[in-house]
Specification:
By secondary structure, the protein is an alpha/beta fold. It has 4 domains: 24-180, no CATH class; 190-316, no CATH class; 360-585, no CATH class; 590-747, no CATH class. The chain contains 27 helices and 13 strands. It has helices at 3-20, 25-36, 55-60, 88-93, 109-118, 148-154, 169-180, 194-207, 212-225, 293-304, 318-322, 324-327, 333-342, 344-352, 360-363, 381-384, 386-392, 408-431, 478-490, 498-520, 528-535, 539-546, 566-578, 603-612, 697-706, 710-720, 729-743, and strands at residues 229-232, 241-246, 271-276, 288-291, 369-374, 450-455, 458-463, 472-476, 632-638, 644-652, 674-679, 688-693, 721-722. The strands form 4 sheets. Strands 11-10-9-12-13 form a 5-stranded mixed β-sheet. Strands 7-6-5-8 form a 4-stranded mixed β-sheet.
Length: 759
Amino acid sequence: MPLRTLITALLLFVASLLQAEPISYSRDVQPILTAKCVACHACYDAPCQLNLGSAEGLQRGVSKVPVYDGGRTDEQATTRLFLDAHSEAAWRRKGFYSVLDTQGNQAALMTRMLKLGHAAPLAANAKLPAQLELSISRKNQCALPDEFASYAAKRPAEGMPFAVTGLEPQEYRTLQAWLAAGAPVEQQALQPSASEVAQIADWEALLNASGARASLVSRWLYEHLFIAHLYFTGGEPGHFFQLVRSRTPSGQPIDPIATRRPNDDPGNNFYYRLWPVQGVIVHKTHITYGLNAQKLARVNELFFSGNWTVAAVPGYGPTRRANPFATFAAIPAQARYQFMLDNAEYFVRTFIRGPVCRGQIATDVIRDQFWTLFQAPEQDLYITDAEFRAEATPLLAIPGQVAQLSNLPLVWGDYKDLRNQYEALRNEAYADVSPPGWSSIWTGNDNALLSVFRHYDSAAVDKGLIGAVPQTLWLLDYPLFERAYYQLVVNFDVFANVSHQAQTRMYFDLIRNGAEQNFLRLMPAQSRQALRDDWYQDSGQLKLWLSYPPLDTDTPSALGLDAQRPKQSFVSALLARYGRLNAKPDPINRCFNGSCYRHNISPQLQAVEQRLSRLSARPAASLKVIEQLPEATMLRIELANGQRQIYSLLRNRAHSNVAFMMGESLRYQPGLDDLTIFPGVLSSYPNFIFNLSAAEVPDFVVALEQSQDADSFEQITQRWGVRRSHPQFWYYFHDLSRYIEETEPLEYGVLDMNRYENL
């Protein structure tokens, strides 16, 4: 037999064996779900709570009960994957129903949903029909197996994947064959490497050390790291861990204790353990924190180098939850604050990006773009003045522990009064010390200067001063920083009722106001009133009178700023003094000497950025297309050498004020909206993608500049837009994640498309 014939026969034989091989969930199925389903089906806001990022989520199935419900009067049972139930039977008892089981002579629900979607392909890159509800506030249509026929008759275009380019033929065949075979799932839990095991042992030894002092520090560290995706220096790519409380000690399988909050009582016998994060990493919940020998030494230096003592470890309960300053008073305040400053980007991300997947509670009380600074510990009276700290601590309690609707007005009034008493005490104390100067601003590392971008109900945090000079800046001291973290992360319960959510939101409004007040103290005294009036226009003046303390317009500032242009003067001086800390310089939006581009990039990209800069920092009154753009648009620029660059084009909505819970649209100032353009992916929730070559950028910019209405914008979208129906939608969408993986590998995760608009 000729050699070529023999090789061909062998290849055909091998191919037949491969075809006969059973479909593997981990090898064949989960990659398809990751590519085509996880972008919508992950985290708490997954439609019908169907989480397709892991075998556990798939087996849990679906529920008609939404997690996000701003109107519920009673808290609901928690349904956290991996925590609140550990078997299919347990999830069924919690009201979830299977998408994998056949129902008599009916195929599995997932089978039928995929078949419905496969039967209704979308027209290539066409705008979707208006009757398809795509907004994040859409009502879930969670058809039970016996309701599917009615669902399909009423919603023939709403199969899965929903309202997006569907599965490839081979993907569809693989999933249907797997489902037809009974949807077998093999469990493959992530296993730490040898290096990770050794470092885990070191950290668990520290966290589980004996003695009251060690117990209190470990408790504080746990409450500050429980939400993190922890990784180790020298660890395996893609390996992350979470800090949990377990019934079992180190060396034994982890048995997590599923308390409602991380500061609820775990019982008498528990151990802190590092538990591998299972399932697909999704960007919106991927808030990273690195562990290594240096961090371990830093913890020992901060918390155990002094001679402080603990008389008794505090208990748990609503009072302890309400005031972490009192609960952890024995731990030196300097140590607590410095630990947070060392990792300021992480901590700001935890409460701005959020422990949840919808951020209205936090985001509707902040501006669309602002910068955050921090007060130096040596200038923070809560750190340096024991008498002030003793007076202040009882006033720093935060609401939300008692969530009865009938008590809301009284509870809120009490906590607002406590806060304002604290502000009065603070103003009085700081009036007696030296005026604030440049030494008042912490400059310890590149976490010192942060930018926050809000995109309606989500937000992003990045190092460096990004964007044009914002309307507001924050100066966080330790009491503000810790309260923000505890109010929005530790104490926030996504499953709680409307009273808890309202208290959380209203108190964060006070925190934002406090951070603004702190910044204003850096401004010349005579300029503060005008600045604040600009931040609180119209109805904001009423809020100033109702809820906020008086503005300090007497205590001088030692910064020596131009009283006519104080904010601009401050930013210029800040960049001159602390430019080395500005991790991400931004010449596109803050252009000097006509060079509106980064200097360490190719001439072709420099030309691209120079052209894009024409769109930045211009009010919508002169750039009408802003009115048509969503909050977070991604520009994918293809270069002549085959590479590409991603830019985020962020719409910053202007508001007369952000002081109220309701009626945000009534406070829009659309003519003042502007754009920030920055290299990279600055959102977990892309709203739209434009794909164009570098050579087309001039035409693209001109088209945006000339666009005056929806019709002209439609032409732009038709030419360069990547709609949900684009044949290559998934390639372009996931290329955003690939870009993150290439530029910031630790931050890689699947992006969310629940907010991808139908432009």
